[in-house]
Design a protein that fits this description.
The chain is α/β, with parallel strands linked by helices. It is 39% helix and 18% strand. The protein has an 8-stranded mixed sheet, sandwiched between helices. Strands 13-12-19-14-15-16 form a 6-stranded antiparallel sheet, sandwiched between helices. It has a 3-stranded mixed sheet with strand order 1-3-2. Helix 7 crosses helix 14.
Length: 514
């Protein structure tokens, strides 16, 4: 009811007081018409979207009217078009958004902190006053923001949110991780300025976009809380003209609208009732009322001209990126040696849950999995020399086996003038070396009656074989994996961490391939 009443107010009031040029658009339900004409106002219908057009309101300076701008813009946008979904949430902790839009007795089903914790945005939307949807604010953001490391986290979440229409984001008065995320996710960033101090602070947002290589065309200033009673002599007649001139001189774009300072509007936020009232219904007849209408019309026009909002473009990029990751994963998977190097058991074609170690050479020329008992038995016999009289009933056996699951191993072929040898190193899973030892590299071990092929030679020749009988420069890196999902190490993030560890270890041992 409040949404329809607000729309009726706009129809009757603004048709008489603020006639629009023919290029402006006004929206009505599609059940009436796809395009109607009311005097000088043309009515068109926008299709519903699953990817929001995002408007971020941001300024490092407090007290410039960010939240008043965000909340009232949302209400005017909804009043302009009842069929256009309009949503809002705030990263600030004053809960003004909640006071403006919450419906008494409404059961809450999550808040903006849950959005950052991967809950789909559409599941967090609450139907609010004046037909505007909102996501409740949260007191947990101060602690949560310290865990946010990626500046594009919010862009990804909104691309997957299925929030339709327009989404307005109110930010805190600083450039913290949450504000940066809101800036990067926005199709339009509106920066309110009310004085020279807030204008100077704009520089930080523009410099941030420069550092990140983002298009600054999405940034626009709006003179806000302008006292129309203040007049100047000379070419700068008033505060609005002065601020706009200084902004243009700095290369900043300004919107062709401003918001005036109004005692009437200020009383809507601070009153004995403790309520927050909108300009639309409680400040009719003021200049601010008409200014918000013009601002909402401008934002609507910009949205109409945006064929692909950033959330859609980011979703397309995510889809392409996921496809690339899948291709890279399968490329790594198909490049694996299919059998265990020691027992020749087919670990890929017949998963047995015993592939407990992944190996890869420093140059990426060979990779695959090793069967758990085979590799542990190799370590016992060829590295630790503990195979004689050593049984699985011995507690030391279990200690050693558990230790190998918490370690990475490096085998590096070397020449010392007396023949080939292998430098063996054991590292913990953070890349700190625990031990190092050198072993002669011989093809066969034992005497005439017990002669057998060396497992160490098998390991090195199967992975680092070069021209003729030589071995390639580099090293073999062996790392424990989950035997139930050994191929998970080849997934993008896991494989990136694996390579980071391999590179770190390679730098320690002085390998050129690292």
């Amino acid at each position: 009811m409040k949404c329809r009443a607000a729309n009726d107010i706009l129809r009757s009031d603004f048709q008489m007081r603020f006639p629009l040029p023919a290029s402006r658009f006004y929206h009505t339900p599609s059940a009436v018409s796809n395009r109607l004409t009311m005097g000088t106002i043309h009515i068109t219908i926008l299709p519903m979207q699953d990817y929001p057009y995002v408007v971020t309101i941001s300024s490092e300076k407090g007290g410039v009217g960010k939240t008043t701008l965000a909340t009232n813009l949302a209400i005017f946008l909804k009043a302009l078009n009842e069929d256009l979904p309009v949503s809002i949430f705030s990263f600030d902790n004053h809960f003004t958004v909640d006071k403006m839009f919450e419906i008494k007795g409404q059961k809450l089903k999550g808040n903006v902190a849950d959005l950052l914790l991967e809950t789909p945005g559409s599941e967090l939307l609450h139907t609010g006053q004046y037909g505007v949807n909102y996501i409740p604010s949260s007191t947990a953001l101060t602690d949560l923001k310290h865990s946010i490391k990626m500046p594009m986290l919010l862009a990804r979440l909104l691309a997957l949110s299925q929030i339709p229409g327009i989404l307005i984001i109110d930010t805190r008065p600083d450039l913290d991780a949450l504000t940066e995320n809101a800036l990067y996710a926005a199709d339009r960033v509106i920066i309110p300025v009310k004085d020279m101090a807030s204008l100077e602070n704009c520089r930080n947002i523009f410099e941030l976009f420069d550092r990140r290589g983002l298009d600054k065309k999405s940034l626009a200033l709006i003179p806000c809380l302008i006292d129309s009673r203040i007049k100047y002599e000379g070419m700068f007649r008033d505060q609005r003209t002065l601020l706009k001139s200084y902004a243009i001189n700095r290369g900043y774009r300004c919107l062709d609208v401003h918001i005036s300072k109004s005692p009437k509007v200020e009383s809507l936020n601070t009153n004995p009732a403790g309520r927050v009232y909108p300009v639309l219904t409680h400040a009719r007849g003021t200049d601010v009322h008409g200014q918000f209408f013009r601002l909402a019309s401008l934002v609507t026009e910009e949205m109409e001209k945006t064929a692909e909002p950033r959330s859609l473009l980011f979703r397309q990029w995510l889809t392409a990126e996921n496809g690339r990751k899948k291709e890279a994963f399968f490329a790594r998977l198909t490049g694996l040696k299919p059998d265990c190097l020691f027992c020749k058991r087919p670990l890929l074609k017949e998963p047995t849950g015993t592939a407990s170690y992944y190996f890869e050479t420093s140059d990426g020329g060979a990779s695959g999995f090793l069967e758990e008992e085979c590799f542990f038995g190799f370590l016992l016999s060829s590295i630790y020399n503990l195979d004689n009289g050593f049984t699985a009933d011995d507690p030391t056996w279990h200690i050693l086996k558990d230790s190998t699951k918490e370690s990475s191993f490096v085998f590096r072929p070397m020449e010392n003038g007396n023949g080939a040898e292998v430098e063996f190193s054991q590292f913990d899973l953070k890349g700190s070396r625990q031990s190092k030892k050198h072993y002669k590299l011989r093809e066969y071990e034992g005497g005439l009656l017990s002669r057998e092929r060396s497992k160490l030679f098998t390991l090195m020749s199967e992975t680092l074989a070069g021209f003729g009988e030589s071995l390639r420069d580099g090293f073999l890196f062996v790392h424990p994996v989950n035997p139930q999902e050994p191929e998970a190490i080849l997934l993008e993030e896991n494989y990136r961490n694996f390579n980071r560890l391999k590179k770190h270890i390679g730098e320690q041992i002085g390998d050129r391939e690292a």
